[in-house]
Amino acid sequence: MAQTLRWARWHWHRLVSTKGRGNGSTGRDPSSAECKGLHQQPPKAASKHRIVIPCLGHFKEEYEKASKQYKNNHIRTNKYTLWSFIPRNLFEQFHRVANLYFLFIAVLNWIPVVEAFQKEITMLPLLVVLTIIAVKDGLEDYAKYKLDKKINHLLTHVYCRDGRAYIDKLWKDVTVGDVIRLSCNEEIPADMVLIYSTDADGICYIETSSLDGETNLKQRHVVRGCERQESEIDPEQFSCKIECESPNNDLSSFRGFVENSNQERVGLSKENLLLRGCTIRNTEAVVGIVVYAGHETKVMLNNTGPCHKRSKLEKKVNGHILWCVVLLIVMCSVAAVGHGIWLNRYSQPPLYSITNSNGKQDTTPVLGAFYLFWRMIILLQVLIPVSLYVSIEFVKLGQIYLIQNDIDLYHEKTDTTIQCRALNIAEDLGQIEYLFSDKTGTLTENKMVFRRCTIAGHEYGHEENAKRLELYQEDSEEEDMAFSTRTTRRVSRVKVSRIHGSMSSKPLHQACGSSFTRESCLMRQLAFSSPIETDVVPDIQLMQKCSRISHHVYERPEMEYMNSETMYISEFFIALAICNTVVVSTPTEPSQKRFWPSLARLPVSPLGDFRRIFNKLSVRKLSSTPPPCTSVKVSWADTPRDSAQKMEAQVLSSSAYTYIPVETPSPNAPMQSEAPEVPSACSSQSSLEYQLCYEAESPDEAALVHAARAYTCTLQSRSPDQVTIDLGHLGTLTFQLLHILPFDSVRKRMSVVVRHPILQKVMVYTKGADSVVMDLLQKEPTGIKKVDEEKEKIKEKTQKYLDEYARQGLRTLCIASKVMSDSEYGAWLKEHFIAESDIDSREELLLQSSLRLENDLTLLGATGVEDRLQEGVPETITSLRKAGISIWMLTGDKQETAVNIAHACKLLEPADKLFTLKSVSQEACEQLMDSILEEVRISFPAKGRCSTNSVKVSSSLVAPRPQLSTGLIIDGPTLAFALHETAQSKFLQILAQVRAVICCRATPLQKSQLVKLVRKELHGMTMAIGDGANDVSMIQVADVGIGISGQEGLQAVMASDFAVPQFQHLNKLLLVHGHWCYTRLANMILYFFYKNLAYVAVLFWYQFFNGFSGIPMTDQWRLILFNLLFTSVPPIIYGVLDKDISADTLLQMPELYKTTQKSEPYVSSAFFFNLVDAIYQSLACFFICFMSYAGSDIGIFSLGEAVDTSIFFIILLHLLIESKSLTWIHMAVMVGSGVLYFSFGMIIGASCIFCNPPANPYWIMQRQLSDPTFYLVCILSTVVALFPRFIFRVIENTVFPTPVMTAREMEGRVIQTWICNQKSRRIAPV
């Protein structure tokens, strides 16, 4: 083993050094056979990497040269400055077509020959819109500016090379290469590489809640070679440079290396990087070197701002605006042709025409018609509703406010409510057709409860634990109060200043002392630590077998203990306890220290000498996690000769890592009839050794660690170099931790490589999905028939129990192990070093290295963990399916588990016919799809007509989706075949026929691909909901993305459009708020088109009686302000508050959701019907007024006053007819609009004598209000104009009622009955 270590160590330094071949080091000849091919790595382009020079005295000249290329730490998320606000904001606003249109109108009005109004008045609508938007943008940007200023002026401790001391420095002044010292509870100001920690093992604990929402602590490690330092590092003695990848937004990876003065390199990973925005926890002090600052930090590169999506309704509106443009051109063309005919018919020029000195026209009839066309464009400009966009923004803000303040969308237990992160797609909530849902944490609670396990082919049902779960009442008052208190304290502690938004911030630099109090563990609510997760009642039979575990089991011959059931049980629980990344802390010592082994078996030597020898010999030094170091000045290289001299003591792992045996009771000793009671974690009434706090990154890990603890296999401590457990009669075992191969979605497993303290061999423990672990088991026979038969028997029985667990809806994991010889480990280690030191392809090479290690495994057993359904999930799914929403479950679990959960949550009904699409090849997949389509045709001949020969999906399959009682089950590998070009059309036909799809073993990429496929090919409105990082991709590609603020952090929430506390809140969000938002906004938009055309049309009809001169019959102020001011507020209130039906009725009758799902409130026929109605009402209004005053001597403005007032009342009362509910707010706005209209008219009539030359509007309103004819005309025209609309609504409600109308009528009857009952109770005698 010693030779292997020396050989691997020497090769490590030879491989990672680019210039180390000529520095005089002695050792094996590089040209030897064993070294050939290892130095052939192509040189990496320096331009792709970043070289960081520390800001230290001996690097002064290099730093000054390099620092010019780096950005400082100043951040700026606001767009504008004081001087650039007006020009830049105007530039951005004029990117909108509507604003450009009205700018064109304003410029056109400045041309004298086509001038319709005073030049300044034409600019008023545009100025109002630009001002409103500019004020909104300015306020938003100012809020960002204040937050940026607050963050930039925070203080941190930066090393000053002149004063050779740490000084306070503003965050904005920090630059790349600065050495920063941070204390406990301080926020990290920039991305920096960790080079020192006060922790004895070189560990730094950070909290990443500001990045991903996870409140459990993460470990970061000091750069390899710098962990063990007897005193705080002196920056001046740090003689290394850092080369790393260029700034990027990948939060999950970091590649680079540290190079010292001898050009020796040590690889860097994400475990060595402290990200900006994280907070130091449970560590007294750390020191790091800044590698990325300011906008080059990973968190800032991920700050892409709020997501912007266009709703389906908005796209329709844009199309209908084009119809308005066409109508405007037609009206202007008619006026232009009429004006040309007028000029051609009459020889004398009209009074308003421009003539020359001879009194003749300067223009021909054709040119006059051309000028009149543009004049009419100015006059009828309001037909294009520029204010509609502003009104839509106000309506959406009001709708979002109502959603966020809905008490039914608040979850009291977690103190969370709905978050609306996308403000412009609220109406899309009412049109969802396909809902893609994750399973774990979305449909289930993500609280993993250990239920069953199988070890060595024997199954243990844990009936007593099942009974406890049935009787367990987690939401008791005492538990709720305790959890609520701890959660509140936790939230108050972690609310620090965020970069992404306006989060509340607290003063930083709250340095903590060197000692940590008991409350530091108890005050913080740990993730996945509720009693239902931590309390496990052991199985009596398995507990009895565990009592037989002793060191005698491991003293048997190798082939004998491989078949020992006790050996399997021991190794199974060891794997559960150590194959994880759980952080262990105690109330008195939250930060884990190294548990040094007993010195009884070591040579007598001073402690300092021993530690130096131990550090040089530790195999951990060769691994991916840092080894100890006693020198401040970093040096990593030793030649084989130097190593041999330091290995005289032969202190290998066999002597350094020991187990402490305890007295083993006789196997015949009587056992208790009941399982012993196991103290729960952090119990204040148990002894200190049991007061352990487990902080896990996933609920699965926490559940398995607590299960192992229930069987006296307690995880006691974890450090970068070792893991210590207490295994019953074996006592305390300390495993040397060599490597951790973390879980990823590609491998679907995690592994740890340790040195077993009893076997003194390198062991690999693996846990993962059965679909992958079963394929990694040892396939080659051992040569011993009994052993091979026993392993095959264990595999068959384990698979049988795995299938049974899955049918019960349990999440399954396989546990396996592998024994490696020192030579095998050394060979693997050699390749692994190459992967660790690579910058450009680090992840790919590490993946290949992991695959080489995880093979030929021995199956130990499997676990079944229950993840209970969230409250209200079956009821919610039932309601959504009645609403016509197809719900698909996309999960990474195995098929049996997914199907069981689908039945439990009512996604699949017992009567549903299930089609399973599972194949191993492309051809087999296509054949199976053909058979499924044929079976659908036979089973459902009336509904399932589809052609299997079509290349594209027919439109009949896209439009009305048949509601067949069928479901499709497909796994991830088969999905890859189904998404292929040759099979995609058939796959889409199947999807269009079924109402539920269960996709199991799906990767995050496949989830997003499936959502894209449905959006593109089936043209359905999609929604994706999930709670974890693996759901982010499908959340982002869906039309509406929903994140659940669950136990897996806030990655899904941050990527979503809306975030809800639980799945059940979708019920009201979609069925109620989705229906209301779409209906309200659709009706408001239709009303906007109607009122604009109605007012413009009366101006157009007047042109037939004034020679198509382009002159209006009203003053220009009222003309401009009519749509902009007088009639703008009522439709906004209508769009925010109108309620066609109550929330209770919508929840009780989910079928009503189909009306908005099919866009019934806003169809093209409704749009054109409103246009026709507007034309009719304008005709009735104008001609009744015109005929009433025919032959009289009233002026043009007097006629215009009657027409304007009549159309004003028509437009307002039209809104009353269309309103489904009236409140005092509606009536107040209506009255206010009327008061404003008449007040403005009277003020203008009294004061504006020469406002509209040559006409005179003086005292017009006052005279008309004193004329009885005026009132008669207004009443008559209003009644005639609105009568058809009123009759149409009456007939529609009585003869042809829609489902919503019928439901509203039933609701009215119920209310009337209730009122009558209340009255009868009051009248009834006592």
Strand content: 5-15%
Structure class: alpha+beta
Q: What is the distance, rounded to the nearest whole angstrom, between the alpha carbons of the first and last residues? A: 99 Å
Number of helices: 46
What overall geometry do the principal axes of the alpha carbons give?
A: globular
The number of strands is 36
Largest sheet: 10 strands, antiparallel
Please give the share of residues in helix.
40-55%
Mean pLDDT: 76
The parts where pLDDT drops under 50 for at least 5 residues are 1-47, 473-525, 588-690, 943-962
Rg from Cα? 38 Å
Indicate the topology.
Layout: H1 2-16, E1 49-52, H2 60-66, H3 85-93, H4 97-108, H5 119-122, H6 124-152, E2 155-160, E3 165-170, E4 179-183, E5 191-197, E6 203-207, H7 209-212, E7 218-221, E8 241-245, E9 256-259, E10 265-268, E11 273-274, E12 279-281, E13 285-292, H8 298-301, H9 312-345, H10 365-379, H11 386-404, E14 410-411, E15 416-417, E16 419-420, E17 434-437, E18 444-455, E19 458-460, H12 463-471, H13 477-494, H14 519-522, H15 531-534, H16 540-546, H17 558-561, H18 565-578, E20 583-585, H19 607-617, H20 640-646, H21 653-656, E21 659-660, E22 693-695, H22 699-710, E23 713-718, E24 722-727, E25 732-741, E26 749-755, E27 762-768, H23 770-773, H24 785-807, E28 811-820, H25 822-837, H26 842-853, E29 858-869, H27 873-882, E30 886-890, H28 895-904, E31 913-917, H29 922-939, H30 955-958, E32 966-971, H31 972-978, H32 981-993, E33 996-1000, H33 1004-1018, E34 1022-1026, H34 1032-1037, E35 1040-1044, H35 1051-1055, E36 1058-1060, H36 1066-1102, H37 1116-1126, H38 1129-1137, H39 1143-1148, H40 1153-1157, H41 1164-1188, H42 1196-1218, H43 1224-1247, H44 1260-1265, ...
Parallel strand pairs: 17-30, 17-34, 30-33, 31-32, 32-33, 34-35, 35-36
Antiparallel strand pairs: 1-8, 2-3, 2-4, 4-13, 5-11, 5-13, 6-7, 6-12, 8-9, 9-10, 14-15, 16-36, 18-19, 18-29, 20-22, 21-25, 23-24, 24-25, 25-26, 26-27, 27-28, 28-29
Helix pairs in contact: 1-25, 3-6, 4-6, 9-10, 9-36, 11-36, 11-38, 18-22, 24-28, 25-26, 27-36, 29-32, 36-38, 36-41, 36-42, 37-43, 38-43, 41-42, 41-45, 42-45
